[in-house]
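To the wet lab folks,

You asked to see what we're planning to order before we commit. Fair enough. Below is the target structure as tokens, and below that is the sequence we designed to fit it. If anything looks off to you, flag it before the synthesis order goes out.
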């Protein structure tokens, strides 16, 4: 077997070995948890950035038109007609 001179297995580091092993375990666990959290944030951040980019696809004129409709300045038929025109104009660019 692999017993040290003092009869302990693995050389017998005593309390210093246990403290060192505990500290390394805590540091490795913290590093693993941090890596998982950062990976989740990165993946969620990518989705959030895509959603922001998609919401940016709605142009300022479309936002202004939606606000006018929400305020009641224009009716639904006018809103739909103008929105169709805006989207056709954007596609032709």
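Sequence we intend to order:
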């Amino acid at each position: 077997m692999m017993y040290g001179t003092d009869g302990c297995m693995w050389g017998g580091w005593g309390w210093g070995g246990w403290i060192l092993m505990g500290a390394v375990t805590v540091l490795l666990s913290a590093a693993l948890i941090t890596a998982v959290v950062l990976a989740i944030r990165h993946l969620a951040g990518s989705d959030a950035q895509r959603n922001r980019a998609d919401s940016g696809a709605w142009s300022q004129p479309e936002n202004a038109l939606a606000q006018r409709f929400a305020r009641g300045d224009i009716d639904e038929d006018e809103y739909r007609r103008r929105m169709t025109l805006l989207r056709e104009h954007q596609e032709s660019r």
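Structural context that might help your review: The helical segments are 15-55, 60-71, 76-92. The CA atoms of residues 12 and 74 lie 84 Å apart.

Thanks,
Computational group
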